[in-house]
Every structure is written in structure tokens, then in C-alpha cells.
Amino acid sequence: MNTASNPPAVAPSTPSVDLQAMLAETHVSDVIEQLDNDLIGLAPVKQRVREIAAFLLVAKARAQVGIESEQPSMHMCFTGNPGTGKTTVAVRMADILQRLGWVRRNTVVTVTRDDLVGQYIGHTAPKTREVLKRAMGGVLFIDEAYYLYRPENERDYGQESIEILLQAMEANRNDLVVILAGYKDRMETFFRANAGIHSRIAHHIEFSDFSAEELLQIAELMAERMHYRFDAESLETMRNYIERRIHQPNFANARSIRNALDRARLRQANRLFARAMKGARASVEELTLIASEDLLSSRVFQMKEADSGSG
Amino acid sequence: MRITQGTFSFLPDLTDAQIRAQVDYALRQGWAPSVEFTDDPHPRNTYWEMWGLPMFEVQDAAAVLYEINACRKAYPDRYIRVNAFDATRGFESVRLSFLVNRPPREPRFELIRTEGPGRSVRYSLRTVRENEGAPE
After folding, report:
1. E strand or H helix at B109, and its extent?
2. Strands, E, within A163-309: which ranges?
3. Does B66 contact A137 at a Cβ distance shorter than 8 Å?
4. Which CATH architecture has domain B16-105?
5. Would you say B128 and B42 are in contact if contact means Cβ atoms under 8 Å apart?
6. Which of A12, B62, B88, B110 has its CA 20 to 30 A from that of A175?
7. Which residues of A142-162 are buried (b: 16+ CB within 10 A; e: fewer)?
8. Contact between chains at B59 and A138 (C-beta distance less than 8 A)
9. CA-based nearest residue in chain B for residue A175
10. What ipTM describes this predicted complex?
11. How far apart are CA A44 and CA A50, in angstroms?
């Protein structure tokens, strides 16, 4: 029944490649599937990752049949608010790139300005080179990359570090994939001042904020991984908590949720302990349950009342 | 005179791909590679100059090759070697060492005899560079 959709038979002299076999061989679809299942939301990001994976696979197939093409640049830039999964995706990206043979190792070296920029003249270049060498063969992830450039101080050593990075991104593109990450607006300022770096990055991926519904799913997934669970009542409280937390300052998406869960675990332990002092035994259900009251005693619920009182 | 020192020295000079494979092997064993250079290949000269610090944190041969090439560029007319240091207790020494660069014209060695007490003779070697022009 597939014959109708099959491409016309190719002449025997034309070499062809079995993309499906190549895909199965690299196990890259496993990583992409895992990415789909493990990460909630982030649809545009997943789409982009899939595109990159497909592109690399096709590039590999082209190389196999002997079509010459210039090595594309794989450097990326992830922009988005804190806690939107930039680091997590970077680690997965390293996995995908390794399976497709783009990098030799699936290691991610995570650095910030402190690791790249030196303290005095002549300190920056060796320090940056040291980091580059450590990352070679894998992925270099530069978090908060916009800190590298400090426009208010023209003698800042960050500029020197950027120049060395640029050189390595160009000359060692077969050995190294650089991923820059940071908040969107600050990264834009950074790129405006460093046009060279912007043009050397092929993939700009934007991470959008999570919706309340997505955050609730994330909370459930996180709890499940830590072997905790919610009941119907505490899930409702969690939903309530998320809706309030979103509008408060310093909200860091999934990271805030993880912190809230960590605090809830503390309170749960405290609650069980207090009961144990009175001689009660704890069942498995009780040990894994995050109850509504563990969440309700959060500062977020009290602050809301204080806010509405003052406002 | 062609100097034979370190591993592989009786073979033709290693290509970059072969150097990369050797360094990869050393890294897989958990040894720390380092690059050294000298202008005096005398067999008793164990103290070559270090090109940067040993690379303890490097995980890929590309980084070592990068340093080798930087060193070749700075000192094209010196001997350059790669050492791989094994920090395992009991070894704590260099496990692999090979040349990656030779000067275009290599020096010769001269045998020096020194008369000692009681007509004993002591022998030593001296490196003779081309421009020193020792009598043939």
C-alpha cells in the first residue's frame, strides 16, 4: 500500500542513503523523544532541536554520498528568563550533537564570567584558553554571557575574552560548540556591541516563560522524580500557590517551583516528626504525601494577604 | 644526526592524526599530557622547558594538539615532545613520551675523552650544533 507514495525508482548508478537506518543507528530519536517526555512546554525549543537534529543527519548523509558542503557552524544562543530550562536543554543538546557525531563527547563545561575573565593584565587570555581547552571535544556553555561585556568600563578585560572566544569559535569549530545563554534584553545589548559574535552564531533559540498550567505539570513531574505525590487537595493548593507566585518579584519559573517543593518537603518532614514525637507511626502513604498544609504555610500565601491589606 | 629519543623514535615522524590518536589513548588512561621543548637533545638533558602547565583537566586530544601547534609556531627550530604523566600511586611518573617536532637541521654529538687518575679514561658526549663547525 506504500508503493503509491514511494519515490520513482532511481537509476542504479545514483547512490542513495537510507536515512531511516542512519537515524536508528545514531539513536538520536531516543534523545528527542526523551526531550519531549521529560520537558514540559517549550514547544518552539523542541521544534528547533528537532530541526537541528534533522539538519545534522542530512548533512551526514550528504557527506556519505560525497556531496561537498562547508561545515556549518553549530554555535547557539539560548535566551530566556531564569528557570526556563536553558541549562537542561544545553545538556540534551550535547547528547544529540554527540550521537550525530558532531562533537566527540557529550560533556558540557558550564562557565560564567568569573571563569573566563582575569583579574589583571595578561591574566585573561590564558584563563580563557584554559577553559576552551577543557571544553574541546564537547560543548562549552557560557551562562549569563552578557556579563562578559561591560560597556561602562572601557578597560574591562571582558572584551579580550570575547576576542579569544570568537577566534576559537571560528578556528576550532570542528572541536567545539559554544552555547551562550542569558536574559533576552541583556543579550540583545550584548550582541549590539559585539556584532561579530552575533553573526557567528547560527542558532538563536528563545525560551518563553511557562504558563501556570505547565508549571503545575512540572511540579507534579518534579515531585514524582523525588518520589513524592500530591493528593487532590494539595494539588489544588499547588495550583493556587503557582498562580500567586507568578505575580511576585523574583519569580524564576521552574526553579521557583523546585524551591517551593524543597521547602514543602522540609515542612512535611517536620510535620511527620512532630507527630512521631507523640508516638504515631508513619505509613508509606504518609511518607510520600505532600499535604495541603505543607504548602499553605508558605510565605506566599501570607504575603498575598498582607499585600491586599496594604493595597 | 637523527635523534632517537622517547617512544616511536625509530619510526618515521608521527603525523598529526597519529599524534592525536596517541594523546587520545593517554587521556583514556587518565594520564595528564604536557608539552615540552628544548634546543639541547642530549640524552642526559632531562629538564626540557615546559610549554605551559601540564593539562590535567583536558578531556580531548584537540586541546593538546592546539598547544602543540602553538609551540611549533613559536619554536619551529626546537625539539618538541609530548609527555603523559600517570598520577596513579605506584607509578607517579611519565608513562609515555614522544617527539612531535624536530629542527630542520639536527645537531650531532661529539665524544669527549678525559684522562683521569691512573690513566683511566672517562667518556662524555657533547652536543655540537651546525654553526659551531667542529673539525670534520
Report:
1. strand B108-115
2. 177-182, 203-207, 229-230, 289-290
3. no
4. 2-Layer Sandwich (3.30)
5. no
6. B88
7. bbbbbbbbbeeeeeebbbbbb
8. yes
9. B62
10. 0.74
11. 10
Element at B62 (helix H, strand E): helix B61-74
Spell out which chain A residues touch chain B, with contact meaning CB-CB distance below 8 angstroms: 104-105, 107, 126, 130, 132-134, 136-138, 172, 174-176
Q: Residue type at B73? A: K
- In what helix (H) or strand (E) does residue B38 lie, and over which residues does it extend? strand B32-38
In chain B, what residues touch A133 (CB-CB under 8 Å)? 55, 57-58, 63, 66-67
Q: Cα distance from B109 to chain A (closest Cα, Å)?
A: 38
Cell numbers at B129, concatenated: 650544533
Residue B36 contacts A, CB cutoff 8 Å: no
Asked if B106 reaches chain A (Cβ–Cβ under 8 Å), the answer is no
The shortest C-alpha distance from A139 to chain B (Å) reads 12
Task: Answer whether A175 sits within 8 Å of B59, measured CB to CB.
Answer: no
Give the distance from residue A136's alpha carbon to the nearest chain B alpha carbon, in angstroms.
6
Interchain pair B63, A136: CB under 8 A: yes
Q: What is the dihedral of CA A186, A191, A197, A200, to 10 degrees?
A: 100
Burial string for A4-15 (b: 16+ CB within 10 Å, else e) reads eeeeeeeeeeee
CA angle centred on A125, ends A122 and A128, rounded to 5°: 140
pLDDT tens track for A19-70: 777 777 777 788 788 888 888 888 888 888 888 888 888 888 888 888 877 7
Using the predicted structure, report yes or no on whether residue A2 has a pLDDT greater than 80: no
Chain A and chain B share a number of CB contacts under 8 A equal to: 38
Chain Cα centroid distance, residue A256: 15
Side chain identity, residue A201: I
Compute the distance between CA of residue A287 and CA of residue A268 in angstroms, rounded to an integer.
8
CA dihedral B12, B14, B18, B22 (to 10 degrees): 110
pLDDT tens-digit map of A63-121:
888 887 777 788 999 999 888 888 888 888 888 888 877 888 888 999 999 999 998 98
Give the pLDDT confidence score for residue B136 in this predicted structure. 46
Cell, residue A232: 487532590
The residues near A172 (Cβ < 8 Å, ≥ 6 apart) are: A132, A136, B62, B66
Pairing outcome for strands A139-142 and A108-111: parallel
